[in-house]
Amino acid sequence: MDLASAKMIGAGLACIALVGAGIGIGNVFSSLISAVARNPAAQPQVQPFAFLGFALAEATGLFGLAIAFLILFVF
Amino acid sequence: MALELHPLAQFKIEPLIPIHIGGLDLSYTNSALFMTIAVVLITSLLVFGTRRNALVPGRWQSIAEMSYEFVADMVETNAGHGAEPYFPFVFTLFMFVLFSNLLGLIPYSYTVTSQIIVTFALAAAVFIGVTIIGIAKHGAHFLRLFVPEGVPIILLLLLVPIELLSYFIRPFTLSIRLFANMLAGHTMLAIFGGFAASVGLLAILPVALDVAIFALEVLVAALQAYVFAILTCLYLRDALHLH
Q1: What would the pLDDT profile of A26-43 be if each residue is shown by its tens digit?
Q2: Do residues B223 and B62 make contact, with C-beta atoms less than 8 angstroms apart?
Q3: In the predicted model, what is the mean pLDDT of residues B161-184?
Q4: CB distance B8–A69 less than 8 Å?
Q5: Which of A48, A55, A69 lies at the smallest CB-CB distance from B224?
Q6: Closest in B177, B226, B230 to A59, CB measured
Q7: Number of domains in chain A
Q8: pLDDT tens digits, residue range B108-120?
Q9: Are the CB atoms for B100 and B113 separated by under 8 Å?
Q10: Which chain A residue is nearest to residue B227, measuring alpha carbons?
């Protein structure tokens, strides 16, 4: 297998990491919605944590995407 | 036309004013230009915004005061009560990352934080600074950070290396999080723009998607600045209060 094809396959496989990001972000916001539904007055206190959790969950998925870009365009 | 444009070509560093001193390439690049623009914008917002010093603030003074208050509140809530001296550092980080991220969204501009070396420099400054602060405050007792309380000795053999690893990986995750978010967002925008250039009338679909992704990128720009600053506050709290 030549390098270019191997790169494509490698990049495609690395993108599977984004499944985790999707599940994680869904979890975070579902918890936010449940929490605000139970206690709407708590929204300003819970919301910063929700955004922090979203960013951290997205970051782990983007680590995988960064590896995909690395494979495609650097090596 | 745009069909030959490689999606990563937007991250190329171009020397604008070549300066070579003794074998070192110290050119003023487009990256340096946008860092300068970010610093000038932040300084003029804060200096000229608060020049009027009115008790009832006007628009610019409001923005300057709100950004100050936002970061001050974040430092006080998340870094605890010993962290007031470090507020200027966190404020600088937050404003620089925010303005750099937002400036990169302007078409044909350059995103300073999309270079791993820039984000790694910021994250390394945070990590080394926080470690030095912790060691200066607690001395050798700082190593208590890696030994959680109430854990049986047998588990400690497993837990301490894990804690050490997760501590030393902090500069890398901090930098790669910001870098990958900026890189991925802007590359997606460029790729969908390339699609729009290469299909005829169907270009309305990638362009509509580009508009939606652009809105997401504005959110991500602000959010990543917030996350960088709040993680700095949390690491500061770990170092100052050891738990």
Answers
A1: 999 999 999 999 999 999
A2: no
A3: 91
A4: yes
A5: A55
A6: B177
A7: 1
A8: 899 999 999 999 9
A9: yes
A10: A52
